[in-house]
Amino acid sequence: MAVNNDRLVAASLGRSRSSSGSSVEPSPESPEIKSRLQSTKSTVGRSRSESAMLIPRLPRKYAITSKGTLLLLSMIALGQEIMYAVELSYAAPLLQQYGVPRRFLSLALLFSPILSVFLTPLLASLSDRLTWRLGRRRPFLMLFSATLILGAMTFTRARSIAALFGSSETSATIAVGVLGLTFCD
Questions:
Q1: Burial level of 91, CB count in 10 A (0-12/13-18/19+)?
Q2: Which residue has the higher pLDDT, 16 or 35?
Q3: Are 154 and 179 a contacting pair, CB within 8 Å?
């Protein structure tokens, strides 16, 4: 069984090309395969299939322990999809009520995706470098959840918010509405 496992590990590392161009199977004696074999030796005696032995296991802290946990994790995606559905059905009519001319409606709806083309890589690199106690992703999820709620409230109450700042002009209402719609995305 150990010899078959050695060959499977060698095959999983891929075939190298010789100088003549033909494919050469790596030898189980090579250093990189020996280190890979050492990491898989602990799984040899288990009842899983040989191909499953080659798949590295995640640490226990990353395992989903129950269906309830999986359901809770799926709620994030559910909330996001509900927000997109609401945004798609109400964005255009509300923007028209706020005074956005029809010819500029698609531009107002495109502002957020255009902005996200530039912000997404920047925020992803910031998230990769974050070393907070809460983790790398969780602070960003909390921040973006708060901005989504704030954006939804701002977008749906743009006239009231513009009036709060002492402006009853249509341009101020449009600016607040587009800003709220941008925060929703």
A1: buried
A2: 35
A3: yes
Model-level pTM?
0.55
Listed residue (157, 121, 96) closest to 165, CA to CA:
157
pLDDT in tens, 161-183: 988 887 778 888 888 888 988 88
CB within 8 Å of 8: residues ≥ 6 apart:
50, 51, 53, 54
Look at the block and give the residue holding tokens 């250093």. 31
Name the DSSP letter for residue 23.
E
| Inter-residue contact 12 to 54 (CB < 8 Å) | yes
Q: 99: which DSSP letter?
A: T
Counting beta carbons within 10 angstroms of the beta carbon of residue 85, is it exposed (0 to 12), middle (13 to 18) or buried (19 or more)? Answer: exposed
Rounded Cα–Cα distance for residues 22 and 25 (Å): 10
